[in-house]
Amino acid sequence: MSERKIAVVGGGSIGVAFALVFARAGHPVAVFEPESGRREAITAELTAKLQSLAEAGLLEGTGEAIAARVRLEADLPAAVAGAALVQECVPERLEIKQQLFAELGEATGPDTVLASSSSAIPASQTGEGLAAADRILVAHPGNPPFLLPVIELAPSPVTRPAVVAAAHRIYAGAGMSPVTVAREVEGFLFNRLQGAVLREAYALVRDGVATVEDIDTVMRDGLGRRWAFMGPFETADLNTRGGIASHAQKMGPAYERMGVERGQHDPWTPGLVTEVERQRRALLPLEQWEDRVAWRDRQLQRVAAALRPDDA
User: CATH classification of 191-306, choosing from 1.20.210.10, 3.40.30.10, 3.40.1010.20, 1.10.1040.10?
Assistant: First the structure.
């Protein structure tokens, strides 16, 4: 898998970051960038990022060997020829993406995955009316993707399942953590979750409840430390003896009141809690709960040690 060619279209910061991700995993990578000045800057940026990763002990192999897998192209058909996956990284404008994907559809084979880095434009809009629509999906990364491995795969209703499966294999093989968004929603998963926190943070400042720094402190020194290695469902599951069903019984009414206060009525209904509990128990049987709580505490110790000031 790592020998298959990857093409990155667009040599901005996200394009360079994706080139690093795939080259680090052993793929030959072609980066298409039409502007000569930008092409000249890419090599220096890539070298600097690789050097920083090496200094942090986050590289296997040498930065020189990884950088050597990346070639810069000024010709789009040459860049994407023979690619297993094309990662689009152009500006967030629908008309630009539609024109580009029309060209990509003509320049690539029928099994090439066409992936958009878009954070807001769904694949159904990008691929509307295109013959290659069944090969197009959104592959939205965290930023920067060489440090945040999650990537959201959001297919359109006409994207072939085999294309989604191929994308999943390629990203997972490159060390990323792909998740599949079951249906198109604005913001996908990353920005909807991030947006929920930001909406409440803004509201708390507006209502005079806390300062910007106080809210950032709660996130940085509280929620963020746990969320560095586990998500909100596992956090709630491990916070209450008896697991997530017990947590929902004890805390659900309070969270419902908080939602109503913000004009949002999304109660945790019994059926919803049952489904969440079913999924959590499939991941962690209750008889293993104590061991997982001990694991959580060890992870928090590691985070605390990593964040200790250098002069402590």
Answer: 1.10.1040.10
CA 216 to CA 261: how far, in whole Å?
Answer: 22
CA distances from 163 to 14, 33, 166 (A): 22, 25, 5
Give the residue-averaged pLDDT of 86-97.
96
> Could you give the CA distance from residue 310 to residue 11 in angstroms, rounded to a whole number?
36
Calculated CA dihedral for residues 263, 264, 267, 273, nearest 10 degrees: -150
Amino acid at 166: A
Segments making up each domain of the chain, as ranges:
6-180, 191-306
Letter for the amino acid at 264? Answer: Q
Residue 290 has pLDDT above 70, yes or no: yes
- Look at the block and give the residue holding tokens 């293993």: 288
pTM exceeds 0.85 for this model: yes
CATH number of 6-180: 3.40.50.720
